Amino acid sequence: MSPLAAAPWDTGGGTRITQVRTFLCAPQGCPYLIVRVETNQPGLYGLGCASDPQRTLAVRAVLDGYLGPLLHGRDPGDIEDLHRLLLNSGYWRGGSIAGNALGAVDVALWDLKAKAAGLPLYSLLGGRARHGAEAYTHVDGADPGGIADRVAAAVEAGYRHVRVQVAVPGVDTYGAGGGGRQGVWDSLAYLRHVPPALAEVRRRVGDDVQLLHDAHERLTPSQARELVAAVADAGLYFLEDALAPEDAAHFGQLRAAGPVPLAMGELFDDVTRFLPLLEQRVVDFARLRIPTLGGLTPARKLVAACELFGVRTAPHGPGDVSPVGQAANVALDVATPAFGVQEAAAFREATLEVFPGAPVPVRGVLYPAEAPGLGVDFDEAAARRYPAPPPLEHDRWALLRGVDGAAHRP
Q: Which of 92, 217, 254, 263 has its CA 20 to 30 A from that of 123?
């Protein structure tokens, strides 16, 4: 049976997609949805990461019911054509669920293509522009002294970039332990407590380490302007997500509020949402998330635009991005002059067992694999030992209320 909307130049024969399989596991604690695109060539397959830990089953349904069947019988080498065909197959296209499903397939096709060529993936993206991707790690704490000690330990381990999150007493603070009331957020307490704490951490650690901070979209535009002005003394490498995506039009005001470099984008599910920020020169770092943007095909075009507008990349890579997704990040990082810094997760031993070849920082640097493709494999038998939690279980961290009881952004 001929595939729907078969490519007119495809005369048949050669390598064909025979099956698209999905796997759900949680060796890191959060759900990982892994996609395997298989072919009629023995041992030739590609892996992708459909990372959306809050809507995992919805993404899986799109893959199993729609995108997977559409790919059967097609030539996996026509990545641009397949990406556009799958994107357009949902008339109401776009959104994070469709993006993560498409992104997993797309990365798997790139992995497969590089394997077929016998080349590491970065070679297909233009080859190396650097030896490796400098990474940042995460530290947090309740007081500047303890945080400074953790920063010093990270520097000793080889990191030159460290994200610092400060626990606010009595407040459920993103990325920091030591908060009091679970699920309650107080923006005014955050604004009183965090800027002086960051300045004190900077004073204690000196200027030889790059400090980052994530506001995690919890502030109003006026509060974000206040934060930008207040953290100037901390000498941040960048301030991340000072605004929510729906407030992105206010970034020009943030730029005017102070000299702090601004990072934005991990919640964007369409590369075109970055374009106004690039054109207006109001952000310094693009926090792109390859799975949610629809894969490497659109992400590499965004990275080229970042280079043209003088914006650097800082791809999203916490623990809920699998080693497959992180390997895709690193391949793109080393192949672009626009690269800035890569977020790095501390993968558990169980995760390293399930994903042989997972990228692990060496003295604060992530190096691309030299094996063909992404350089990461997936052990199905090991994965079955780490079943995913029930739906909604991983949503808990995103459920937040303000001091007045209103639902709040996470």
A: 263
